[in-house]
Fold these 3 entries.
Entry 1:
Amino acid sequence: MFKPFELFVGLRYTKAKRKNHFISFISATSMIGIALGVAALIVVLSVMNGFQKELRATILGVVSHVQLMGSHGQFENWESIAEQTKKQDGVIGSAPFVSGEGLLTFGRRSHGTLIRGVLPHFEKNVSDVSDHMVEGSLDTLEAGQFNVVLGIDLARSLGVGVGDRVVLITPQGHVTPAGVMPRLRQFLVSGIFEVKNYEYDAALAMIHMADAQKLLMLGNSVSGLRLKLTDLFEAPRVASNLASLLPPDIFISDWTRSHATFFRAIQIEKRVMSIILLLIVAVAAFNIVSTLVMVVTDKRTDIAILRTLGALPSQIMKIFFIQGSLIGFIGTLLGLSFGLLVAVNIDVIVPAIESVFGVQFLAKDVYYISDIPSEVQANDVIWIGLLSLGLTMLATIYPSLRAAKINPSEALRYE
């Protein structure tokens, strides 16, 4: 695109020490501004990507990819329905469950809880709870033993550990002459899990499905069936196919519906933050306009001499285009390098800052994820780099055109 003459002079102007130090200061400021804007964009988008990935993994570690429930909150013959779901491409696991609500008490402490009755050997096919046991094991849930596995924050709220006995109270009660009395049952705490999701760590209590059926008076019915897929992004398609295959009284939902709000919010935040931070790059890039305008004014005599020696207006324009683009290129390169360095090491940098200043950016009882994750995606880095270069090149057009229009006779009149 550029001949050696334009390239040589453009690079010469960039490297030469200027008599006007203010111009050099503005050039350096523009370069640093571009670098900081690009770095901020990479770090923020990488953190957003990390949050999206961690949130999805954390939620889907407890929540199923696809869930089947009866129209009245329960259905029978779950085994036959599970067999039908296995015929669907992409389904790699299924597990029945019984769901309900109750109140756990220990001594004078009590806490509301979400009861989930499971079959441990089936549950391992659809959730990661068994891989996040802090104490005990999910296999300790046996029919008739009335054992319970609690989330770690729920156990802390009650002040219990493995081996303690808690009382579970459910709304389903006995009708007596004195009125409806709630059902109470003593359970032995046989395990504690931590899935790093406060919603489940602080509220979920898992018991054997047979015990849950007795406690909630469901007989042989289950609340639903949970499915795991090879590709979680295929959940909407699989749910749609199952809807045409299974009886109409079975309600089918997938994780993109039940938790769509979370992921949609992150996506919107990511776009908004991209636009806001892009303004930093834009402001820094258009500082190049003022820099090059001042350079053009400072180099009027040099431009006039080059024109009298035979340089074409297009060549003069390319000289200053190279100079401005070089500032943008260096700023973008520095920003990409610094941004990638911070994004890749965010798991080390943030804890160090928290330790030094004694703060916690993400409180566990407030946010779903207490650690700041990061995932650098190549397409984000590429479009940030290209957009930054595009803005800087756009900013060089006006000063370059102004330099090309300088009249040699007017410029040399008072020299």
Entry 2:
Amino acid sequence: MTSNRATLVSVFILAAMTFQPAWAQGQKADQVFAGKLTFAPDEEAHYMKRFEEGRTGLRNTADEAYDIQEEIEGAADWTPLPAVVPDGRTISDSALRDAIKYAADNNSNAFIVWRDGKVETEAYFGDHTRSSSVISRSLAKPVTAVAIGRAIMLGKIKSLDQPAADFVTEWKGDPVREKILVRHLLDMRTGFLPQAMAPDPSDILNRAYLHPRHDEIIIKEYPVVDEPGTRYEYNNATSEMVAVLIERATGRRYAEFVGTEVWQKIGAMGGTVWLNREGGMAHSGCCMMVPAENFLRLAILTLHDGVWDGTRLLPEGYVAEMKTATAENPWYGLGLYVAGQYTARRGAANPDRPAPKTLHSEPYLAEDLYLFDGNANQVVYVIPSQDLVILRTGNNPPRSKDKEWDNSYLPNTIMRGIVKDKRTSAPQPR
């Protein structure tokens, strides 16, 4: 395992969204679906230990929270991405200083700006370094989309529109679950029960996340409450199914597949991923521990339409699919958020829900912007028209009645600071 471990602020970060705000309570989320499957007493005891330690906040470090981890091998010949010399920067020093200060003031552990093939600046905070692992939280979800694309490229999955039941054969014969397509595991339209706060240990929302056999629980017990493909609802269970799909489609462990077919292919470092039990299933929807630079490289891969150093890793046009929002959520594609029409506040939940939403004080200055966005406002902004990627990872930013995270500040500050540009100008805001 990697030796560097970031610190969890609390187990509520561990749970990604499981213990998060109760915006879905009272709307189907109060259903309890325990008892359909029977597991060994020691596995139930392991589940209860995780639940109780999470509820009481006893797990404070990544090693404590992710109690069983599997190694992900990175590139053996890793070298840093090329960096510009100071007088070669295309972004003003003042813009970079303002952006770094904003990152520093908001509990960040890493901040990187890359443009035109080179790193313009990078900063690490506290005891964090370039090789320190960060807790992915939902930055793991774009990884699932790239992993699926890679499996399609390798011929292991036919297309995004292949029924998931071709691999999750337990769903064959189920008139609803048979309609779940591979793409629905990436665009949050499986029809699965929405994410919600669940204080009861017998609640499916907890068991489908913390149980040592959480994959079996999702497959055989997790409720489908909407017709697949007809409604966007954020939930971790949808993304957790990607590990199941990859393993069944390829015959390879999820950690090995991601390490070999994603991180190594783009020259990234390795790390770990949380398992539900020894030798069990990886948590693909969250809980990956890799350096921040890995997500920068992943963003660059998408910026270049799935090509790295002249080698195509993803099918032609696949990234365009990732960046295409659905009618059910005009700000979300396949594991990616898109600029879309401006709204001052938006979040991960269905746009119609009265859920917590992140501030956007102004429109993004580039309408082609898309982003990886995870819990604790961990973001990777990608602006193809400016050949620009901006990354910020860390813990939850401080919040008060006078201060909160602004999701448009970093990209707009950097774009306004562009001083050397081969293009005509940055795109105008929508």
Entry 3:
Amino acid sequence: MSLSENIMATHNELGRWGEDLAVEYLETKGYSILDRNWKSGHKDIDIIARTAEEIVFVEVKTRSSAGYGDPWEAVNYGKLRNLQSAINHYIHYRQIDLPIRFDIISIVATDPSHPEIEHIEDVDIM
């Protein structure tokens, strides 16, 4: 395996670990997980959950350190546009008739045994 392939594998493993951690976090908060890594073409939604009142679309960003900024800062304009498109597709595909919101879960795993989790609720996606 080349260095770039190894770095990508490590990056992907960190991302999967972060998503698993985010699912556990949401479930402890009473959310029901409906879907994970739902794809709409090349666009995807990390986690789709439900509370008693609404459907919650969640983008998870995980970093091994905050050296390059907080993970949530990687959710830029282009990513938001892609998410908006995927969310609209999901709503129509699943015929969702509930209020929706978009959240970001930002995880910094400087110490993986005590990761820092920041849950940013109701992010404006427009």
